């Protein structure tokens, strides 16, 4: 429920400290600042401001305690911070005040504008950066199908409103271009995009060339580049979800995109190791795997009367190993995964989605029976072709040996053409099924697929009839 102006003012007054406490810097090691004198009033997550030489203020956050001293990590550079520098206690729970005027803007992890378009308007209600997800028993169920504008996803990996999907890919396989297509073409009210640990050189290129003015106009973009401290990268991910929650509470349908969860996990690893936490798997500390569900569970359907946050999160798999610790943990949290494969990209088919290794957990329940029959038939043909691909390429398979393999060979190029899509092309749900049916040589109603007034097309049972000669 929106706050009144009086309630907002009272809320801000309540956040003001009635007195000011400060301690002193007692040690600096690497990125960690040790502060003495405040350990009795600080707790994990508390904020302090260290006054560096030249009166430069460096915001910091408490990440642990050791030998009676508080361990802080900075949100900025530690240049000028030395022994005896003053450390002032700041507000314990940082908040943001998003408003509709944030659409079309680019902000940093602190919610400050970095696009040179002037100050941001402040909304009446405050949102905590580290909010809890809605209670499980109070959440609505996922909604109906959502049009993602990407033919391969709409047809083979249909998503619902409020679903959370992971995009798993190695570097240079096209996940950033796929994200830009989703941001421009998905049928939602608002996009909230988090670029976590992105290369600074590529941010402006992605905003101007890939996202474009049309996509940016209905988006809020949160940026924390790879050269920023780990606290900034972690907070950028949480700020992205806080902004998505703000629009969700207004009853809007929100698309939340984060690129990438892996760099968020790497930031959490740096924070944990700096605080003295022991490494567990591949150097990742236990707190990383505890923090991932706290972040990702914030996406999804809201409570009754609210909108939904449809989440699509990229996972950068190291060395193309889709079973590395972060990918494995994220796959178990989300409602499906989209696998981008380097071998597919190398043969020039974009988006390079491996349909057979990708899963949407809301399918087939969200589809009509005839849609499921069509998709399953296409999947079987793809699977049959991939099983025989090596023999086919070297010419060891003899035409006519197996009717099912012959059918797979005949239809495979047409199915591949359906999966291929230029980044400037938008595809809708109905058109995807029609194109897939045409690739299989089947009749398909011209009206919206799934309409009760249309007779379902005959299932392509010929796929099952092939028997070895």
Question: Care to describe what's here?
Answer:
The protein is built from 13 helices and 19 strands. With 469 residues, the chain is of the alpha/beta class. It starts with a helix and ends with a helix. The chain is elongated and about 85 Å long. α11 packs antiparallel against α12.
Mean pLDDT: 88
Sheet/helix structural class: alpha/beta
- The percent range for strand residues is 15-25%
Number of helices: 13
Amount of helix: 25-40%
The residue ranges in which pLDDT falls below 50 over 5 or more consecutive positions are 447-469
Radius of gyration of CA atoms, rounded to a whole number? 25 Å
What does this entry show, briefly?
The protein is α/β, with parallel strands linked by helices and 469 residues long.
Q: Secondary-structure blueprint of this entry?
A:
Blueprint: H1 5-15, E1 22-29, E2 32-36, E3 47-51, E4 57-66, E5 69-74, E6 86-89, E7 95-96, E8 105-107, E9 127-128, E10 145-146, H2 151-156, E11 159-160, E12 164-169, H3 175-185, E13 190-198, H4 200-217, E14 219-225, H5 230-249, E15 253-259, H6 261-274, H7 286-296, E16 300-301, E17 308-316, H8 325-333, E18 336-339, H9 342-346, E19 359-360, H10 369-393, H11 403-419, H12 429-439, H13 462-465
Helix pairs in contact: 3-4, 5-6, 6-7, 7-8, 10-11, 11-12
